[in-house]
Design a protein that fits this description.
single chain; globular; binds arginine; seven-stranded antiparallel sheet; alpha+beta; binds glutamic acid; 25 helices; 4 domains
């Protein structure tokens, strides 16, 4: 008995020490299923993924390319994050109907709002097709030919592998090119907005609280999928009907406790868990610091204007949030990688790897991988830095340069493809630019330009820096550009782009703004990109062999998951607090009380709607309040998530919906590169808070009635 208990304890310690990983749902049987059961899961791998019966994966589509959603009613109602629906909510908003500020609720299906271009994609089937993709590849002499053959095979297979007419085939690579998996999918195209809380709930805490625990954001919005009368995907039509899902998630409002099992399903975008120490070192000490400094400068300028001028605040809110999100993430990541000694840990792993290679007698095949990495990462360093600086300054954060780059591409297009292609692109450009100028303020951008060009001049690697920008007076250049360039307004650029190709190209080449981007882009494309691509290809090939070796030389039971690649994954763990720093412990739960504590009347990040305060004061939580009398708001767990997992369902041991994933904790944002079970946590909004807002705050009982809600058993 005692022995058994010890054994169980041992198993438990092993499992809890080893969490992390994002797993392929069709391959959970064996190690993962056992581990999940040890952690408390009550359902089977078959109930998560199978091709015969309906299962959890049928309720978890990808939302509009970049996020995740879950089906929560048999009428195609889906739930995702507020920040995933943000653009749609903004698009439907005007001064008269400001849904961003006030929220939006459809109390009848007729009121639901269509969203042009929005899609939701379900997975029908997952199948390993590695042998088919690699057919005829190994016989080829060199890397470039191999890659070409693989791409050809993939595109043929995507066309020829069996699927229904309304489905898509999509083959994706796993383990850096060591495995290929087919996803058969169905993409629904008529997606309508059903509900969104005001931003003061859905985006509460905004950028100050972003990536931070403890958190109090009601980050959710609701949409509905519409289908044709055969329940198949169709373009928007008034004839369409609510989609009948194969499965919809039951919702549990029983509540969660610390150490309860949880799992998250969704579409994590990108991780790099198997990078060598040389690459991590470069991210920590060279690339992240440069990217952070650039965004830091741009954001400071924008924030200054936004705080003084409400019109600018509206123009820049969405752009600012997008730039700030990764700016902040990189800071947390850099800090976390340093604090956890990720580089040293990787080096230790590599030493061990090298020993295994020798033991296995595989020196010829794998003995040089690490030396190759060292050499190539050293060689690529300045090119990689130049690439990041160019991208961040010219293609992302200085609007006039980003716009100018479109004209630069127009010129290239003319040179390569001629008049017709030029005309088509020019017309598209002019049509599309209205949206750009609606949210463009030249005064803001001039100051950003000034800051970032100064950064460019002093930080772009000297050996590449264009002579014109050595010892640059950025203030005077900014002044020239913003007083003389035609790129600063819609009216002016329309004139600049009119006439035949010869006239247009002559005129843009006289433009002061265009001159800047052309100098930078020519420099980058001639002096940096070719060499960067050349070394990068070597790193990609080395990484593939390194991954192959890791898989081959590790014991069968090792937990080696494929890096995220925007395909459906399952991650699991436990509800758990953490210790961010010496002497500090974070609890895993937050409550509505915290919203009231953070409340700053009128503040753009921490204002609270009056009705929510009233509900709080009356403790009017309906059936959604916790047994301690409080209104639960968010919780954290050890699930291994990343960008793309936004909106992912968090489920309990029975596969019932208990929350909605929306972020990670500050100290754990490094988990894309180095996951540590001690401090990496994902943040979820408690489903009880979501339902409380829908029911008590918005009074949208019509939506509550559609859901299958599991309540705690009433004890007498
Ligand atoms: N950090 C979360 C994610 O990566 C939330 C982002 C929402 N945007 C923001 N700037 N607050 O998507
Ligand atoms: N907010 C992120 C997203 O949009 C998820 C958070 C994360 O990166 O972990 O997907």
């Amino acid at each position: 008995m005692k022995f058994l208990r010890l054994l169980l304890l041992f198993v438990f310690v092993q499992v809890s020490a080893q969490q992390g990983g994002m797993w392929i749902p069709s391959m959970l049987k064996g190690m993962n299923e056992n581990e999940m059961k040890t952690l408390g899961m009550k359902i089977t791998a078959e109930q998560i993924y199978s091709i015969n019966k309906s299962n959890l994966k049928d309720a978890v589509p990808q939302f509009d390319g970049g996020c995740t959603a879950e089906v929560i009613s048999d009428k195609g109602l889906i739930l995702t994050n507020h920040h995933c629906g943000f653009d749609a909510i903004q698009n439907h908003s005007s001064v008269d109907h400001d849904y961003l500020t006030n929220g939006f609720w459809a109390y009848k299906m007729e009121d639901e709002l269509p969203n042009k271009g929005m899609v939701v994609t379900f997975i029908i089937r997952i199948e390993d097709v590695t042998p088919k993709v690699l057919e005829g590849v190994s016989a080829l002499p060199n890397e470039a030919d191999k890659q070409k053959k693989i791409q050809e095979n993939i595109s043929t297979l995507n066309k020829t592998l069996p699927k229904e007419a309304w489905q898509e085939n999509s083959i994706r690579t796993f383990y850096d090119g060591n495995q290929y998996i087919l996803f058969v999918t169905e993409t629904y195209k008529d997606i309508r907005l059903v509900g969104a809380p005001p931003s003061s709930i859905g985006k509460f805490g905004s950028d100050t609280d972003n990536w931070v625990w403890p958190r109090h954001t009601g980050d959710f919005s609701m949409f509905r999928i519409y289908a044709d009368k055969n329940n198949r995907p169709a373009e928007y039509s008034t004839e369409n009907v609510p989609y009948k899902p194969k499965y919809s998630l039951p919702i549990s409002i029983k509540g969660v406790k610390e150490n309860d099992f949880t799992m998250v399903m969704g579409y994590p975008g990108r991780t790099q868990e198997y990078l060598p120490s040389a690459a991590v070192d470069q991210i920590v000490n060279t690339l992240n610091p440069a990217k952070i400094a650039i965004r830091d400068a741009a954001l400071k300028v924008q924030d200054g204007f936004m705080r003084k001028d409400n019109a600018i605040k509206i123009q820049y809110a969405s752009k600012y949030a997008g730039v700030a999100n990764y700016w902040k993430k990189w800071m947390g990541e850099t800090k976390g990688l340093k604090k956890s000694n990720a580089v040293a840990m990787k080096q230790k792993f590599e030493k061990n790897f090298q020993e295994k290679v020798i033991k296995a007698g595989k020196q010829a095949e794998y003995g040089n991988l690490l030396a190759d990495f060292d050499k190539n990462y050293t060689n690529i360093k300045d090119y990689a830095l130049a690439r990041d600086i160019f991208t961040e300054i010219a293609l992302r954060n200085t609007e006039i340069l980003t716009l100018g780059y479109k004209l630069y591409q127009l010129e290239q297009l003319y040179n390569n493809k001629g008049e017709q292609a030029f005309n088509d692109r020019r017309n598209n450009l002019i049509n599309g630019l209205g949206d750009f100028y609606k949210d463009f303020n030249p005064n803001v951008d001039q100051k950003v330009f000034e800051q970032l060009m100064a950064f460019y001049s002093s930080n772009y690697p000297k050996q590449f820096l264009p002579a014109a920008y050595e010892n640059l007076n950025a203030v005077s250049l900014a002044n020239t550009v913003f007083t003389q360039s035609q790129l600063v307004s819609y009216d002016k650029i329309k004139v600049l782009l009119s006439g035949d190709s010869k006239t247009v190209l002559e005129n843009i080449n006289k433009d002061k703004g265009f001159e800047v981007i052309k100098t930078m882009a020519d420099n980058y494309l001639k002096n940096v990109a070719p060499k960067y691509d050349e070394i990068n290809l070597k790193n990609i090939a080395t990484q593939r062999t390194y991954m192959k070796a890791i898989l081959e030389l590790s014991p069968k039971s090792a937990r080696i998951f494929p890096d995220a690649n925007s395909t459906l994954r399952v991650t699991y763990g436990k509800v758990k607090g953490y210790k961010p720093n010496d002497g500090v412990t974070y609890e895993p739960f937050t409550y509505l009380d915290g919203v009231i504590e953070k409340y700053v009347p009128g503040d753009y990040e921490f204002d609270v709607p009056k009705k929510l305060i009233d509900l709080y004061n009356a403790k009017d939580y309906g059936r959604y309040g916790a047994s301690n009398g409080k209104m639960p708001l968010a919780f954290i767990a050890t699930n291994h998530t990343t960008g793309g997992n936004s909106g992912s369902p968090a489920m309990d041991a029975n596969g019932n919906l208990i929350g909605l994933n929306f972020d990670r904790v500050w100290e754990g944002t490094m988990s894309d590169i180095y996951y540590s079970p001690d401090i990496c946590r994902n943040i979820m909004v408690d489903i009880r808070y979501v339902l409380f807002i829908v029911d008590k705050y918005a009074g949208a009982e019509n939506l509550i009635k559609e859901m299958k809600i599991i309540s705690p058993k009433m004890k007498k």
